[in-house]
Write a structure and sequence with these properties.
There is one protein chain. The chain has about 110 residues and is of the alpha+beta class. It has helices spanning about 5-10, 30-40, 45-55, 95-100, and strands at about 5, 10-15, 20-30, 60-65, 70-75, 100-105.
Length: about 110
C-alpha cells in the first residue's frame, strides 16, 4: 500500500509570502484525528521543518490551532522575495516538501 502523507490528512496544504523575508505555510486538517497527528511534536516540529527547508531550527515558528484543526509554520525565506536567486516569488510552491512528509505507521494514501 502507498504511504500516507501529510497532504492525505489535509483539506489543503499551502504556502505564501509573509512579507519579503518570510514564508508561511498552513496545513488545514480534515478532522481532529489528522490534527492530532500533524500537531504531535514527535512528528512535526521545528527540527523537521528545518531539515526539509534547510533553515535554522531556532528560526522556525510553529503555531498549533486546535479549534481550527490547523498547523501554521513560518520561517525566513532562503532568499528575499524578488532577488536574483528567488525561484518562487510568491512562495506558492514551498509547501510541497511539507505536503509530501510521510506519516509514520500509516499506509493507504487516504486518512481513515
Amino acid at each position: 500500500m502507498p504511504e500516507t502523507t501529510l497532504a492525505d490528512l489535509a483539506h489543503e496544504v499551502r504556502s505564501k509570502n509573509a512579507g519579503p523575508f518570510w514564508v508561511t505555510m498552513e496545513v488545514f486538517l480534515r478532522d481532529e484525528e489528522g490534527y492530532r497527528i500533524a500537531a504531535d511534536e514527535s512528528f512535526l516540529n521545528e527540527r523537521v521543518v528545518a531539515d526539509l527547508y534547510r533553515v535554522e531550527a531556532d528560526s522556525v515558528q510553529l503555531f498549533r490551532i486546535p479549534s481550527l484543526n490547523v498547523v501554521k509554520i513560518s520561517f525566513p525565506r532562503p532568499v528575499s522575495q524578488g532577488s536574483l536567486r528567488d525561484r518562487d516569488m510568491h512562495a506558492g510552491q514551498h509547501h510541497v516538501p511539507l505536503a509530501r512528509l510521510s506519516v509514520p505507521g500509516r499506509a493507504g494514501g487516504e486518512a481513515s
